[in-house]
Predict the structure.
Amino acid sequence: SAFRAAMSGAALTLALWVSVAAGERVRYRDLDAETASCISSNDLLFDWAEVRADMGMVADAVLRSHHEVGGVEDLFAVRIKPQMHRLQNIALWHDLSMLKGTDCPLGNIALMIFMQYFTPKTQGVPRADEDSALAVNCLDYYLVFLQEFDWRTAVDSGWGGIIFTFLFALQSHYTKSFELECGEYWGVVSDKQVWEVYEYIQIFRNSGQLSDEMRQSCPHAFATMMITVAAIDVAMDSDGRVDAELAAGVRSMAHSAIIDLQLSMAIHAGRHHNFFLAIGGRWPLWFWAAQLAQHLAHPSRFDSHVQSRAQRCPVHCPTGTPDAATCSCQQLFPTVDTEPHACIFMVDTRAGLLERSFSTIAESSFPFYAAARHVNQLYAAEHGYNLTYLRPDPALHYPGRKVGWAKVRILIDELTQRPECDLGVSIDTDAFVRSSESIGSWAAAFDLTRQSQKQILFGKELHDELGTTIVNGGFFVVKNTVVGRRLLEDWWRVPLDHPSHAHLLREDPQGLNKCWDQVVHPRWATSVAVGSPTLFSAPLSAVVRHNWFKDRKFVQEMTEVIAARLQHQFGCIICSEWIPWERLGVDASEIAARA
């Protein structure tokens, strides 16, 4: 009954199915394989090429093991779990991200299907073993979107193998829910060795029974047979069992089989008004489609590019900013004649002592906020800045408020007492400075100079789907002037002076940002500079990375940066085992005791 209830909501998707079956051109049909692979994605949340390589390794293990636990779970733990939080966040926003558009649409579809299989229902994403209308509608939604693409492009891009593999994995959960469709053809593929299946289908095809009439009446059976023969042909070609003269023809026929599969799915779903029925049947079409896609795209030239890029791309540039697109160091900001003195503040209720040992930093249990402290401390040392890591006092710094307000109060108080600070920098403990260019050069680029009217620099909030969000408060630079401090004081007082915002003292994780956007910014707009998220405050920003996912992948990235900066500053990563923080002017009270 749940399945029937889900199908009642499919009327909206039927129009798309009909247009695909009729051969109409749709939005993503003209993408080429390299573009669709996202090898040069500009996404600020994901390195999609890296995610695809990780998911591809898990997909390979699923096909090899046929759901045997060992290899799949091991690879999942190593390649996927470190970035699970960010994957879940994207999956939870699937409706919005797909409707709005994404930098990597095929990757988005692959991720949704992948997460549908792996994510526990406790995380809020419906999983395959939940026989619910929600899970069914999700699958239908993803695959309706997939029909907007040419599936040959999906295969050649490397995403098709991942998508088909996890459709195969999901199919096993639903197979028992359906009767066998077109059972008169089942004997051709069931209970036989692979070579026997191949011979039976060839005989069946040579007899003329694999016809368009069969495609229309039994699309599952037809697609399974076409895909199976193509997969076996391509596998033999990959093993060198097909001579060079026939190889091009084999691949051409394989691509034709992919189109047969896509059209058969459109026919089936158009008939039943739901793609769920298309993947829920007992025909093993997704297993063979996955095998075919893996052979056509593997070893993927895109994956090898990702591996070589990871080996050669810098994570630290002594005088510039790492550029992931070109794997080089770039200078993004003009140099300044007189460098202002910047005071950097990190505020957290947890201790953030500096570790003496790099091996301690590299341990798997090392938390994100401690890693961020180390990266930012080394950046501050490069430029002679002062970095202060403060644990706020509830009574002094956030009385009757949630703790996020403490950084605003601390900057007001500290800058008032420290006139030597020309600029105050607030950076959250889930953010780090990735560039080696000076804060003075950033400030000058955004006209945050001593003589200018500008008083504060923020990074633009990446998530602005409604067009009403302006700043991300996880990072900002403010001038230590009377006007700059007054601006912060106005921000602090918004919930006190505006009853409409009083609830934001304690409620809403975006409360600080909303107080700024809705009250302070309109009043001070001419004094505010807002930098693009390509530079500041997104997980993959070039200059200041703010990774609100706080996952293990983030810690791994920061550990690499720490190692590179230690090498640059001390000429080694491990110097007599101990990091000589004192040489960087760090007070002994900020350093963890030796083990």
Remarks:
- DSSP finds 26 helices and eleven strands in the chain.
- The longest helix spans residues 244-272.
- The radius of gyration is 28 Å.
- The longest strand covers residues 471-479.
